[in-house]
Amino acid sequence: MYLPKEKEIIQIKSYKHDGSLHRTWKKTVVLKSTEDVIIGGNDHTLVVESDGRKWVTREPAICYFHSEYWFNVISMIREDGIYHYCNLGTPFASDEEAVKYIDYDLDIKVFPDGRFHLLDEGEYEQHRRQMKYPDAIDRILRHNVDVLSHWILDKKGPFSKDYIDIWYEKYKEYR
After folding, report:
1. Whether pLDDT at 50 is above 90
2. What are the C-alpha distances in Å from 171 to residues 2, 30, 64, 111, 128?
3. Is 138 annotated as a binding residue?
4. CATH class assigned to 8-167
5. For 159-174, what is the mean pLDDT?
6. Nearest to 33, CA basis, from 172, 173, 170, 140
7. 105 a known binding residue?
8. What 3-state DSSP class applies to 44?
9. Are 128 and 18 in contact (CB under 8 A)?
10. What is the pTM assigned to this prediction?
């Protein structure tokens, strides 16, 4: 597996279970890159949806990908605090083109006050039937919702204030 280098500009691509491209973030600066973790930062980056729609992110974000966990975390730095958007999906893979993962619809949104909500359960069930997600995938995803919930409650990893401060400072240095 190709690992991007620190300070390299990469794309992030999410796919669906059937292999179709879901979404592409065009420019993210690599802040850390190991076999286990990729951390990136972006701000006002172009995002292209599978249907061709385009939009630009509104705030700086720190992106966390892990090689073992079935989720990634986008921490958005806003004036009123840090919002985290957690995508349930495969551990990352990377090549010369992008950091990639399969998005499995379920998301957890975390608010600055620590409250969080599981989102898109209806979309998950619909796609689970349409794309025939195996029961093993469902068990893995449900387990990772639990892992992620504990991380949020314990303020572990991307949910730690120190994490955001450290990586946002590094992002400002590199951009």
Report:
1. yes
2. 22, 8, 13, 22, 37
3. no
4. mainly beta
5. 96
6. 170
7. yes
8. coil
9. no
10. 0.96
Q: Residue 31 CB: number of other CB atoms within 10 A?
A: 22
Question: Any binding-site annotation on 165?
Answer: no
The pLDDT, as a whole number, for residue 1 is: 84
Q: Determine whether the annotation assigns residue 120 to a binding site.
A: yes
The DSSP output letter for 51 is T
As a whole number of angstroms, the distance between CA 175 and CA 170 comes to: 9
Taking residues 105-126, report their average pLDDT: 97
Which of 76, 75, 106 minimizes the C-alpha distance to 90? 106
**DSSP letter string over 94-159?**
E-SSEEEEEEEEEEEEE-TTS-EEEE-HHHHHHHHHHTT--HHHHHHHHHHHHHHHHHHHHT-GGG
Q: Find the helix or strand (DSSP H, E) in which 64 lies.
A: strand 61-66
For the chain, which residues make up each domain, given as ranges? 8-167
The active-site residue out of 23, 115, 129, 139 is 23
Assess whether 23 carries a catalytic annotation: yes
Residue 40 CA to residue 66 CA, distance in Å, equals 12
